[in-house]
From TrEMBL:
<keyword id="KW-0489">Methyltransferase</keyword>
<keyword id="KW-0333">Golgi apparatus</keyword>
<keyword id="KW-0735">Signal-anchor</keyword>
<keyword id="KW-1133">Transmembrane helix</keyword>
<keyword id="KW-0812">Transmembrane</keyword>
<dbReference type="Pfam" id="PF03141">
    <property type="entry name" value="Methyltransf_29"/>
</dbReference>
<comment type="similarity">
    <text>Belongs to the methyltransferase superfamily.</text>
</comment>
<keyword id="KW-0325">Glycoprotein</keyword>
<dbReference type="GO" id="GO:0000139">
    <property type="term" value="C:Golgi membrane"/>
</dbReference>
<feature type="transmembrane region" description="Helical">
    <location>
        <begin position="16"/>
        <end position="34"/>
    </location>
</feature>
<keyword id="KW-0472">Membrane</keyword>
<dbReference type="GO" id="GO:0032259">
    <property type="term" value="P:methylation"/>
</dbReference>
<dbReference type="GO" id="GO:0005802">
    <property type="term" value="C:trans-Golgi network"/>
</dbReference>
<dbReference type="InterPro" id="IPR029063">
    <property type="entry name" value="SAM-dependent_MTases_sf"/>
</dbReference>
<keyword id="KW-0808">Transferase</keyword>
<protein>
    <recommendedName>
        <fullName>Methyltransferase</fullName>
        <ecNumber>2.1.1.-</ecNumber>
    </recommendedName>
</protein>
<dbReference type="GO" id="GO:0008168">
    <property type="term" value="F:methyltransferase activity"/>
</dbReference>
Length: 611
């Protein structure tokens, strides 16, 4: 890697600075260096962008010779090299492994829920990319195309052929924007919804799509500035969620089974199911009660497909009138118990609305018919069993007050004080400190962008923040070119995920001592702020780092922000995982014990020994 010619005055720079600059260039050069070029593949796009990266970056404040003892990094022990796993591990999802799943009961989809390997079955090798792997297409092309080599499963094109989900064309998949329930395309379907649900003005910003297929709804809602958290189980339709993420659309592996959904209460502005195969009428209405928990007061529930409009469709669906009629009756009954208002039915779409507070529901006053949840904390959901009970609304003082606080339309919602903070329910945060917190993250992200020029380019689309706090990183980096999965670790002292949703961002609870509910190679950029301080003494550092390597795309990047002594250890370990790294000071100077470690995962694939 040659450094570009600099103007004369730059010669006065210290050689140290040159070393640092070229070091940084080297990392970002790695982004493009291993790409296999070829027409029609995503990699050529990635190369074009990588070439635009400015390697003459001026980095006057950067000083790796910190006041800390750098000799700590010259550890005598050898770096442990992690070897590639066998090639059949390319799509390994540790907590949704087919063979482990089959040892669990099928009833209530328990076998499709998270079942993680115990410590003695954890693997300590690197998940290989399939041979020929290319960088995915850039958004918005990725919405419609994915490279076959990256997701080599044709089963969906066959099984769902008539339903127009995916087509196979040469070496790429094409997504025509169809879905089982949207024969005229997802955009047309969204237009139908918009005639009833306020989708276009920022009132509906966060959507939960249960049983999402290849997430075409989420893909097209992005065009309306609406963020969708889509989930589907890892099942016989190979890799639906993998397709979604390959397309650059947020999704996780998940199922509505016996465990509560990993989202806080009052999070989503809309929940959606189109032919999602969830038995809404069964188990005493428990699944609808769980949807009600995560739905914001005033939020919408959309159900399209069976049993809606069964009188017209029962023959096409090959089901009896009695069966479908009974299913709808049960759904309507539970909706009444939940005190949802039936808004309308248009064609095969049924739309309900959750009332804005408990007082506006007379039935709720007679609580003898409904069983209210006793749990004091409706956000305490990680591995907690789902129960057939109704989550209480926060109290209100008048009939027209929105329980839990009214939200502004997006984007105003992003940086205004979220109701959970205004009400003082997030200990340690006030309206004022929230604003300071946001300023701090704007400063951090400005610094990240200064070092990694690709952050703003669209090169990184699927972004994960492993320890998202109040969503400061995601809010500061917010752009239509990318989306952020904001993870709130279950071991955090305070549960901040509700705030993240109130800002119009999406996220999920997770315990980083276990594998994340996603396929390998699904994120372009991972931000790890304080993760290794938080998990010290909780599980092995390599467990978390190997999981990061699994979910990171080849040539994807990581930004660690942590204590210097911790980053030294992280640095050593990831160097044995084929990552290139560079440590820099905090933007406030070298006296800060917090440092930043930039890393890039090298390109390598299975079946070959090295890069
Ligand atoms: C890969 O194959 C090996 C040997 O047959 C087997 O032990 C292992 O469980 C397989 N792994 C996966 C993820 O299928």
């Amino acid at each position: 890697m040659a450094i570009k010619e600099n103007p004369g005055d730059q010669k006065t720079r210290t050689s140290l600075l040159l070393v640092i600059s070229s070091g940084l260039c080297l990392i970002f050069y790695v982004l493009g260096a291993w790409h296999r070029s070829g027409p029609g593949k995503g990699d050529s796009i990635a190369i074009a962008i990588a070439e635009k990266a400015d390697c003459t970056t001026d980095l006057p404040d950067l000083n790796v010779e910190t006041h800390h003892d750098m000799s700590a990094s010259i550890d005598e022990s050898e770096t442990r090299n992690f070897e590639p796993c066998a090639d059949n591990f390319t799509d390994y999802t540790p907590c949704q492994d087919q063979r482990r799943a089959m040892t669990f009961p099928r009833g209530n989809m328990v076998y499709r829920e998270r079942h993680c390997p115990p410590d003695e079955e954890k693997i300590y090798c690197l998940i290989p990319a399939p041979k020929g792997y290319v960088a995915p297409f850039q958004w918005p092309k990725s919405r419609d195309y994915a490279a076959y080599v990256n997701v080599p499963y044709k089963s969906l094109t066959v099984e769902k052929a008539i339903q127009n989900w995916v087509q196979f064309q040469g070496n790429v998949f094409r997504f025509p924007g169809g879905g089982t329930q949207f024969p005229k395309g997802a955009d047309n379907y969204i237009d139908q919804l918009s005639s009833v649900v306020p989708i276009s003005d920022g009132t509906v910003r966060t959507v939960l799509d249960t049983g999402c297929g290849v997430a075409s709804l989420g893909a097209y809602l992005l065009g309306r500035n609406v963020l969708t958290m889509s989930f589907a189980p890892r099942d016989s339709h190979e890799a639906q969620v993998q397709f979604a993420l390959e397309r650059g659309v947020p999704a996780v592996i998940g199922v509505l089974g016996s465990i509560k959904l990993p989202y806080p209460s009052r999070a989503f502005d809309m929940a959606h199911c189109s032919r999602c195969l969830i038995p809404w009428g069964e188990n005493g209405g428990m699944y609808l009660m769980e949807v009600d928990r995560v739905l914001r007061p005033g939020g919408y529930w959309v159900l399209s497909g069976p049993p809606i409009n069964w009188r017209t469709n029962y023959e096409a669906w090959e089901r009896t009138k009695e069966d479908l009629g009974e299913e709808q009756r049960k759904i309507e009954e539970t909706a009444k118990l939940l005190c949802w208002e039936k808004v309308t039915e248009i064609a095969e779409i049924g739309i309900w609305r959750k009332r804005i507070n408990a007082d506006s529901c007379s039935l709720r006053k007679d609580q003898s018919r409904v069983s209210m949840c006793s749990s004091a904390d409706s956000d305490d959901v990680w591995y907690k069993e789902m129960e057939p009970c109704i989550t209480r609304y926060p109290e209100v003082n008048s009939l027209d007050e929105v329980a839990g606080g009214e939200l502004l339309q997006f984007p105003k919602r992003l940086n205004s004080v979220p109701p959970r903070i205004a009400s003082g329910s997030i200990s340690g945060f006030t309206a004022e400190s929230f604003q300071q917190y946001n300023k701090l993250w704007q400063k951090h992200v400005t610094e990240y962008k200064r070092v990694n020029k690709l952050l703003d380019s669209g090169r990184y689309r699927n972004i994960m923040d492993m320890n998202a706090g109040l969503g400061g990183f995601a809010a500061a980096i917010e752009s239509p070119k990318l989306w952020v999965m904001n993870v709130v670790p279950t071991i955090s002292d305070i549960s901040t995920l509700g705030v993240i949703y109130e800002r119009g961002l999406i996220g999920i609870y997770h315990d980083w001592c276990e594998a994340f509910s996603t396929y390998p190679r699904t994120y372009d950029l991972i931000h790890a702020d304080g993760v290794f301080s938080l998990y010290q003494g909780k599980c092995k550092m390599e467990d978390i780092l190997l999981e990061m390597d699994r979910i990171l795309r080849p040539e994807g990047a990581v930004i660690f922000r942590d204590n210097f002594n911790i980053l030294i250890k992280v640095n050593k370990m990831v160097n044995g995982m084929r990552w290139k790294t560079k440590m820099t000071d905090h933007e406030d100077g070298s006296h800060m014990s917090e440092k930043i470690l930039y890393a890039v995962k090298q390109y390598w694939v299975g079946g070959s020994e090295s890069a």
